[in-house]
Amino acid sequence: MKGLSEAQLSFKADTSRWSVAQCIEHIALAESLLWQWTQGMLKQPAAPEKRTEIKYTNEKLIASTIDRSAKFKAPEQLQPVGKFPSTAAALQAYTARRDSTMAYVATTTDDLKNHFIVHPVFGTLDIYQAMLLLAAHSERHTLQIEEVMANPNFPKK
After folding, report:
1. Between helices 87-107 and 20-42, what is the axis angle to 10°?
2. Which of 62, 98, 141, 154 satisfies CB 3.0 to 4.6 Å to 136 for a cystine?
């Protein structure tokens, strides 16, 4: 995002596609929502019996999330509709949440493998997988931003 003009941040290849600014807003919203969701589930009792409900390996979860050939409609609460005062504010919120998440993952002793969420696309995931999903989701939208910027009509300034 550094050095991009407002025209570049708001450029959309067509009305069905997101701009760079919208991608940034979306990942900022998703980072916060998924964090809150996982932390809420960690407050519930461990449920190791749910491990049998997991359908994705860690590797398949990451690959499926990053795969840009599969399109998903973001849930309403994660739709980019200008919830931040600026793209810079969205990026700052994302970065702060991501830094905090990374610090948590590096130091936690929480039982991430025996607490679960039920994701609307991937089904049952343990919290460890939810953290992998969070990272892969950001990668997915980084790739999307690169696609936007590679468009031949992307503004030069």
Report:
1. 30
2. 62
Q: Name the percent of the chain lying above pLDDT 70.
A: 100
Answer for the pair 130, 64: CB distance below 8 angstroms, yes or no: no
What CA–CA distance (Å, rounded) separates 100 from 106?
10
The confidence band for 72, taking pLDDT boundaries of 50, 70 and 90, is confident
Q: pLDDT of 42-60, one tens digit each?
A: 999 999 999 999 999 999 9
Write out pLDDT tens, residues 87-121. 999 999 999 999 999 999 999 999 999 999 999 99
The sign of the torsion formed by the CA atoms of 86, 141, 128, 72 equals positive
Report the alpha-carbon distance of residue 23 to residue 151 in Å, rounded. Answer: 15
Element (H, E) at 126: strand 123-126
Q: Count other C-beta atoms under 10 Å from residue 124's C-beta.
A: 16
Residue type, 124: T
Closest CA to 16 of 152, 144, 140: 144
Calculate the alpha carbon distances from 35 to 94, 104, 109, 154 in Å: 11, 11, 16, 33
Distance CA 13, CA 112 (A): 40
